[in-house]
Amino acid sequence: MRLTDHSTLLLKLCCYLCLVFSISANATSYRAQWIIDSQKPLESRMKNTLWLAVISDEPIAARMVVEPIKVKHFFIEKAKSGPIYTTRVINGLRKHVAQVKYDIYPAKAGEFALPATKVTLGKGEGASIIYADTQQFNVVGQPEKARGLIVTSSLTLSQKLSDIELIAGGAVSREVSMKVADLPGYLIAELPLSVTDSASSQFVTMANSVTSSASFRGTVTGKRESELLYRFTVEGQYQLPQISVSWWDPIKQQVEYSVLPAVDVTVRPAPSLPMKQRVSFWLSSLVDVIQAYQQYFAVAFAAILLVFWQRRWFVGLFNLGLTEVKVAASLPLSQLLILTIKAVFCSKQKLPALYTCWTELLSKSLQIEARQLQSLFCYQISGSVKVRRRLLLGQMIHINWLFYYQGFQLQPLNPR
Length: 416
Fold this sequence. Notes:
The chain is an alpha+beta fold. The protein contains 8 helices and 23 strands. The chain is elongated, with a radius of gyration of 50 Å.
């Protein structure tokens, strides 16, 4: 009987100890939640800070791994320093908190939601997995004046030049650095630079553009470095244009400007090449031209050989054509046309003599009609002549046509 009582007592003690150990083993509980750093609404195109907090009753010593977070229209950067461990009093109880910092940059305004995020504490089979609930929040947009501008509290520009005195054909390297506060480097847009120039002797090219980010005491500073090459082919005085970048200051609520001044550049003439190099350059240019137009040169060479071989025939043909031209020019109709053309451009003083030569070439029947044109000439006492040139030219063209038409008319057999 006593043995039975002792066995029962020992069994109860074992069950109690198992219950105590099981309760103590499950006493540590975790929960995760999103915490917004500010009570103000998040602003678009600016850095906003969020925290993913893991809360526990016991100190959190296990390794914490958070799955990657992706939200459309969001640029999210996780702090590289790892979780921040602290204690807080929540609902009158002291809790242990591990916080992971996130800097987010909303691209536009609107309503957004952070997804349910998986957090793993520990590793292996004993790891604990918890989820942070979805977090809804609003993002307000920037004013209309800030459209298309970088939103930051500070933007500075600086530049370095390789040289401002060079020889024609050389290039000036212009390194432009833009530093922006509270914005990662990869989110800084390209400098608003024009890589073309109206002057034909100046060529501009974008050689390189790199970005970087630096963090100091929780402040992020982005940097974009752009290298421009200005090449000058002609000597003279030039000016690298000033660079102006406009940006929006959310604190002052106004547009600010950062300006780099223009730079004067002196380009000296390049020394002439030695004769040997110039001859080599000319020969290479000549070879390039021959190769580019070799078909045309071959045809021209064949034509020259053909002309030289049949030079007597070509000379006779040329003489025959020249004779025909002279004969055609000596015909009365051709001379009439030539004198009519001269009447358009000659001075008023020479026009009466030209008119007389023109009438002598006409037939007798047309000379009578041509004499009526003398009324168009008005001789002044001073010796000058006034001519109604437009009417005169019109009548001369009409009479020329009648002269041409006479050759096709039937002539009387027995003219009186």
